[in-house]
């Protein structure tokens, strides 16, 4: 069985390492950057310089690879996944953001492809925990997901670490978030609809609605209140509101000293240069609220871990995202899934295996149940 990994960036490098070390799979790496291809080779991986967005190369990958694992920036991922599906790939496991993952469903059925979407931390692990929490209630009123990739301390630029694509980070701040409130589908603005929350035992955070629910809006269709929030340290949203008012999140190019560049691209460049590369903290808090028998119940799951606690070189957010991606690839390699789109919550029955693997790495999931009569 040939496993191919498309994209050897921050997350892809972790995915490749874990596929080899944790699952005994030897991935073939494809990347459009010569520097990253050489880095993969230095780490003992087979690697080739390929632009997978080219349909001809997508056809080659689909023909040669049993499973194509995709770890690309959001602006390229949808095109590559669709090309792989159209080329008849047996299985595609995507950790990248694509605007509408369910758009792959019918083409994947037609071509007999198993497409695993949102195979990361959030969305991904968050989806599995959401359906697990909701499944413990007789009637669910609300499911809320809080997720944050932060610096370990609330200091430094923006309180962040460069643990994933900075371009995707800014995209998350400008993309409308799909949510369900009081039974109605809503589009929320990450900055203007942000709020402040206090989470049990964790403290106070800025909470920005972000577009991570995606397939959960369908699989938890009966839940009237469903929102995902990205967590940041207090003051982060005020800074973003100022940056947006100044036009720093705009894509429209401006000319300065004879050169044209968009403020957003300049901001991405500056953050790439200035943000620290390590020393992060990941919080994932999933809460479901509703009825259980004669009681009102709240079911919650929490992960709160810092890079220094794990003793790893890679930021925790990168490591956990790559870990879920590699685990999802392994499930596909074992024959799990069906033709069409496989949402991450469909892997929830296998969640105990992922939990055990994370715990061996020092990442522990804490569950809590509260009942009020």
List the helices and strands and how they pair.
Blueprint: E1 3-6, H1 10-23, E2 28-31, H2 34-42, E3 46-49, H3 55-64, E4 67-70, H4 74-86, E5 91-94, H5 105-111, E6 114-116, H6 125-135, E7 139-151, H7 166-174, E8 177-181, E9 184-188, E10 195-199, E11 203-209, H8 216-219, E12 225-232, H9 236-245, E13 254-256, E14 259-261, H10 263-274, E15 280-292, E16 295-306, H11 307-310, H12 316-333, E17 340-342, H13 351-360, E18 366-372
Helix pairs in contact: 1-12, 3-4
Give the name of the CATH superfamily of the largest domain.
Dihydrodipicolinate Reductase, domain 2
Estimate the helix proportion, in percent: 25-40%
The main sheet orders its strands as 3-2-1-4-5-6-17
From the spread of the alpha carbons, the general shape counts as: globular
Write up this protein:
The protein has 373 residues and is α/β, with parallel strands linked by helices. It has 2 domains: 115 residues, NAD(P)-binding Rossmann-like Domain (Rossmann fold, 3-Layer(aba) Sandwich), CATH 3.40.50.720; 204 residues, Dihydrodipicolinate Reductase, domain 2 (2-Layer Sandwich). The chain has 13 helices and 18 strands. Strands 3-2-1-4-5-6-17 form a 7-stranded parallel beta sheet, with helices on both faces. A 7-stranded mixed beta sheet has the order 10-11-12-7-15-16-18. β10 and β11 form a beta hairpin. α1 packs across α12 and α3 packs across α4. The longest helix has 18 residues. It is globular. The termini are far apart. InterPro entries: AASS, NAD(P)-bd_dom_sf, RCK_N, Sacchrp_dh-like_C. This is Saccharopine dehydrogenase. Keywords: Oxidoreductase. It holds the Pfam family TrkA_N. One of its GO terms (molecular function) is oxidoreductase activity.
């Amino acid at each position: 069985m040939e496993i191919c990994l498309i994209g050897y960036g921050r997350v892809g490098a972790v995915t490749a390492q874990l596929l080899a070390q944790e699952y005994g799979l030897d991935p073939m790496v494809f990347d459009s950057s010569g520097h990253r291809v050489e880095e993969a080779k230095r780490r003992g991986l087979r690697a080739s310089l390929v632009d997978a967005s080219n349909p001809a190369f997508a056809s080659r990958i689909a023909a040669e690879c049993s499973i194509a694992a995709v770890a690309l920036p959001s602006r390229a991922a949808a095109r590559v996944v669709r090309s792989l599906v159209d080329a008849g790939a047996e299985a595609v496991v995507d950790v990248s953001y694509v605007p509408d993952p369910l758009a792959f469903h019918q083409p994947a059925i037609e071509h007999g492809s198993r497409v695993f979407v949102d195979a990361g931390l959030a969305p991904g692990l968050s989806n599995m925990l959401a359906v697990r929490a909701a499944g413990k209630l007789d009637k669910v009123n609300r499911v809320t997901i809080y997720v944050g990739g932060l610096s370990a301390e609330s200091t430094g630029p923006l309180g962040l670490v460069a643990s994933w694509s900075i371009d995707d980070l800014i995209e998350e701040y400008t993309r409308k978030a799909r949510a369900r409130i009081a039974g109605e589908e809503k589009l929320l603005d990450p900055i203007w609809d942000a709020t402040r929350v206090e989470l049990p035992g964790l403290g106070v955070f800025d909470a920005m609605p972000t577009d991570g629910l995606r397939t959960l809006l369908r699989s938890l269709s009966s839940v009237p209140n469903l929102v995902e929030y990205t967590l940041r340290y207090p003051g982060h949203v005020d800074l973003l509101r100022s940056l947006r008012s100044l036009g720093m999140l705009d894509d429209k190019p401006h000319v300065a000293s004879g050169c044209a560049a968009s403020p957003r691209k300049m901001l991405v460049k500056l953050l790439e240069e200035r943000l620290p590369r390590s020393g992060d903290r990941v919080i994932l808090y999933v809460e479901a609220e509703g009825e259980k028998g004669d009681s009102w119940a709240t079911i919650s799951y929490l992960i709160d871990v810092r890079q220094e606690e794990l003793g790893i070189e890679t930021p925790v957010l990168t490591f956990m995202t790559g870990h879920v991606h590699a685990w999802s690839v392994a499930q596909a390699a074992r024959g799990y899934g069906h033709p069409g789109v496989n949402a991450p919550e469909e892997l929830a029955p296998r969640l105990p295996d992922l939990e055990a693997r994370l715990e061996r790495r020092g990442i522990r999931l804490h569950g809590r149940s509260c009942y009020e009569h």
